[in-house]
Amino acid sequence: MKTTIVSPKIYTYGSLVLGGVLRDRGHSVSITRDLRSRGEVTLLSLFSTSQLLDPEIREFAKGSSRIYVGGPVGLVPEIVLGELDVDGVVMGEGEEVAPDLVERGACAEIPGVAFRRGEVVVKTEPVPIADLDHAMPLIPQDLRSQNVRGANVYIETHRGCLGGCTFCQVPRFFGRSIRSRSLENILAEVREMKRRGVSRVAVSGGTGSLFGYGGTVNKEAFIDLLEALAEILGPKNLSVPDMRVDFVDEEILEAVRRCTVGWVFFGIESGSEGILKAMKKGTTPEKNMEAVKLARRCGVKVGGSFIVGYPGETEEDYQATLDFMEEAMLDDVFASVAEPIPGTPLARDALDLPRGDNLLYREEVGDYRALKLSVAEARCFNLLLHGMSCRPVPRIVDDRAYSAFLEEARVQGRDVRRVMELIEKYREYIV
After folding, report:
1. Closest to 153 measured CA to CA, from 233, 226, 46
2. I need a labelling partner for 342 at 20 to 30 A (CA). Which of 9, 45, 198, 261 fits?
């Protein structure tokens, strides 16, 4: 039976792993980013809520027989089954579920799936995978040409997160305990990827330095990982993009400087202590600043991500973020409008917030009034502009950059409003 894994636009790491699992179970399996491809059985890998509203994906689902959806969108399977014409949804980790779906179809005997039985959605309890070491992923020939934030592929070294950030799917999807792959399994995978033409790899898994965690941060395991990967790829081809400020120290940052492209990206999110508490970030502006300065002393460049339009964010909270940026002088800045991803506490908070208090719908009446933006969009746009001037070497915002930032803010506002409409439609399933 021919099985096709479709991962629209980018190859997700999970889709590569599932391909390897199915291949080793004796299935004829292929993987593609092309929505024109189908198999006798189709597995559709989706990582973003907005993909459920993509016209091409919706049309693709209509035309496929025996099609199953997997990925983080499975946190609230009722939304997937309500929006896409599919036969089932994988609600958690898919390595042990996908082969059964292909061989048997969605049924109540398979753990971790959701499917329709008439008008009723049947859900079976997911079972976490204890051993994350897996067979060699299915590596498509064109993976080497993919570019996601500078890397051909993000590989997974562990699952789970100790944090409880209200806007994040990771602890809800993978749990709050840390499960790590073995170093040998990771290195064998990367060697094969390099042999197949992949040159640039990013270490993922949420917070990179939690690899090998066993009650405390295992610095030695993380540093050994970076050193071994750098030996295979070369330091200029390895990145560890996402780190929490409370899981870095001088030794870890020195290893990042020596073994990688020399960047870290901290989820700073806000300069307001009140908003950080509301987000349950488990940190403070002072701790964030300490981590930025420590990284700089270690010779590591620092990027920071920020979220605007979070429920309850005041003008004073937003100004605190701008003030933080001016002091931090980050090397790069990412800004996003708070997205109420289904399955996260933020989704429930956003639903409980009166429309008039939601900055996504409140019209901007300040400096950017003529641009017809919402307050959330205006703050996102302004933060991106601000990030250009608050750098060690300030950059000029020319017409091209100005237009790109404005378009980015507008697109984010539009997409998050669409997600709001979706969770309002399925309000009863948002818990």
Report:
1. 233
2. 9
